[in-house]
């Protein structure tokens, strides 16, 4: 898959480019930024690293009508006949960005639409890992796609709390979680995956953000309730196994 083992000393540290749907209101953008900063600052303190990041919420080229030059280009290129956005298509476009060659980075893309991927009715988010649980770093472009649109549909005014939970979940995947050595790990051979393969590669600990809430478009666990419970009972957000792996992987990626 193009991944290889690289130590933190010879791996070129990638910044995170955080792209916000330009159709979002200024208030919504501030909510998203505040929640992401809350997480990223906590990650930095946890691992003792500095995560370089940049925010984009509009055209970034002199000619905004060129391909890859504004958020809406990605969104409209990936809109299907049902007016949903294919999250895999967004990740594919991220990989083909022309500046990935000379400004390699990790992408986080936040969309004010319903997103999906094959086999689902909707997604809260989708990610492709920058690092795997065994410490192997993926050299090519990686990223996360998050949907604010579906959160507003489900949770109305409470969507910011749910956003914090799903952002922690998808960033967890981005940073190599969950830990397959954890007793809470749901493997592809786990009985739960007979219900849906989407349960695989998640955590079963009650107060871990790496639990699967949406298996094939049906809510097995309410994301808002889960996030509230985790914030109340588990300040580390992740189970102990995922917490330790997260710290190590952040140090490899950004240390």
Q: What would your notes on this structure say?
A:
The chain has a single domain, classed as Collagenase (Catalytic Domain). Helix content is 35%, strand content 15%. It has helices at 26-47, 71-77, 87-95, 148-155, 159-174, 223-233, 240-254, and strands at residues 3-5, 16-20, 53-56, 85-86, 106-111, 115-116, 125-128, 136-138, 142-147, 185-186, 202-203. The strands form 4 sheets. A 5-stranded mixed beta sheet has the order 3-2-5-9-7, with helices on both faces. It has a two-stranded antiparallel ribbon with strand order 1-8. The chain has a two-stranded parallel sheet with strand order 4-6. Helix 1 links the parallel strand 2 and strand 3. The radius of gyration is 17 Å and the shape is globular.
Contiguous helical run count: 7
Task: List SSEs in N-to-C order.
Answer: EEHEHEHEEEEEHHEEHH
Q: Kindly report the name of the CATH homologous superfamily.
A: Collagenase (Catalytic Domain)
- What is the CA–CA distance across the termini? 24 Å
Tell me, rounded to a whole number, the average pLDDT: 91
Q: What's the main sheet like?
A: 5 strands, mixed
User: CATH first level: which class?
Assistant: Alpha Beta
The helix/strand class is: alpha/beta
CATH architecture field: 3-Layer(aba) Sandwich
What shape does the CA trace take? globular
Helix content: 25-40%
Number of domains: 1
